[in-house]
Amino acid sequence: MAVLSERMEEIQVVTLDRPAALNAVDAELRDGLVAALAAAEADPEVKAIIFTGAGGRAFSAGQDLQVSMSLDATTAPAWFHGLHEFYQSIRRLSKPAVAAIDGVAAGAGFQAALWCDLRVGTAKTRMGQPEVAAGMASAIGVVPMLRALGLSRTLALSLTSELLDATTCLEAGLLNEITEPDRLMERAAAAARRMTAMPPVAFSLTKRRIAEITQSAFDEAIEAAAGFAAQSYATGEPQAAAAAFLARKGRA
Which CATH class is domain 3-183? Predict the structure, then answer.
């Protein structure tokens, strides 16, 4: 299974569990996350959700490069349309959602973390949007990035594909706290419980309103990403970038 879901008292811990692939997003992980979150949202005993990644090296390194190599101009749009429910499953949560990030959160993983309410990291945390370097347009991620960073920093981060270190992420508001790796889950749980202590109806209604404000921009970004994917994959740039990276890592 690419996603593990287990209870820690009143908190559901959802773990992206592909450590050999740095918890990169493939169809199994994408669908597993959607199912785990739907179950947690429907369970009245679950008061909050913590997301984390297995292996201690990454929350998620983004889209699986094997997926990138397999796509072309005709199949890429469907893959990006499929990401709509992946992100929307986080966006629609009425319960507190905290990302516990030890290592890299890049691309699709970065975006998933940004849709959470709070993010707790460690000194090893690095976050960013490397799509352009991977031959793909940065279309979906700019929506939560603009909300978190503003236009100037969103442009810089998207166009340079830079990964920011933990201290910079904290200063920019991408992280809410930095802690030691052995205290990551403890601090993420503390952040979740601060939110569960709030009046639940007011809390969930506020989350719903924030999601409503960004919904049209999110939906439009998915459509744009699908269209851009057809153009990008027609050039062969994403496939070549993925193949070159995997060759350097000895995984091609």
Answer: alpha beta
